[in-house]
Amino acid sequence: TGGAPLGTVSRARCAGAVAESAHSEGPGDRDFFNFATGPRRFAAVFSPRARGTPRAVRLRMIHQNLRDRTFNFALATIEFCRKLPATWEAQRIRGQLFDSGTAVGANYRASGRARSDAEFIAKIGTVVEEADESEYWLALVEAARIDTGAERDRLAREAAELRAIFVTSRKTAIRTAERKRAAKKAARLASKQKSAGVAGIV
Questions:
Q1: Cα–Cα separations (whole angstroms), residue 98 to 71, 91, 107, 158, 184
Q2: For residue 62, what pLDDT band results from cuts at 50, 70 and 90?
Q3: pLDDT grade, residue 51 (50/70/90)?
């Protein structure tokens, strides 16, 4: 069994929501990505006011979808690795594919506990790298004629789809972080100008 399809959730919408959830300031959005920051924040996302908002519900559903999907990809990778032949080259590749295929979901899960924008972006970057590496090993399995079956093809498609989702997510997260920094800088400048104006009047 491999990664479950996204269904009606498009790649762009899914990736955008992943990044948005880590940068939103409203209740029920950012908090559900940061359960490790304390019981009050954990409770906040599930409060009646926060958890019922359509945006919060949508982001939680997409986040859970990707947690399930990357977990299923790890399971499918394990099953595929178990079936590879016992030749020395297949066994060497199996270890590499096992590591990268299972690391996609593990690192995505870790991104949900990022303590800053920079940490979130770095974690998602690692997810991209692991998905891309999985693609490489699966392509090598086919090119070396170790396995050319339908299961390999399906795993390769899923690795490519996950990579594309998280590449878009990382780009969105970077743009959002840059906008936040620019807004804070503008706010500081406006505050300084206001203070200078008040001082001049006095």
A1: 13, 10, 14, 15, 43
A2: confident
A3: low
Q: Where are the alpha helices (DSSP H) in 33-149?
A: 39-45, 48-51, 54-82, 88-111, 117-143
Amino acid 15: pLDDT:
57
Nearest CA to 59 among 106, 92, 26, 103? 26
- The rounded distance, in Å, linking the Cα atoms of 69 and 121 is 20
For 156, the enclosing helix (H) or strand (E) is helix 150-201
Residue in the block written with tokens 């086919």:
142
- CB atoms closer than 10 angstroms to residue 47: 12
**Rounded (10°) angle between helices 11-23 and 117-143:** 150
User: Residue length, the chain?
Assistant: 202
Exposed, middle or buried, 128 (CB in 10 Å: 0-12/13-18/19+)?
buried
Structure tokens at 137: 């090993």
Q: Around Cβ 3, how many Cβ atoms within 10 Å?
A: 25
Measured CA angle at 168 (ends 162, 171), to 5 deg: 140
Is the CB of residue 127 less than 8 Å from the CB of residue 111?
Answer: yes
- CA 197/CA 192 separation, integer angstroms: 9
Longest C-alpha distance within the chain, in Å? 84
CA triple 169-21-160, angle to 5 deg? 25
Q: Is 47 helix (H, G, I), strand (E, B) or coil?
A: coil
In this prediction the pTM is 0.71
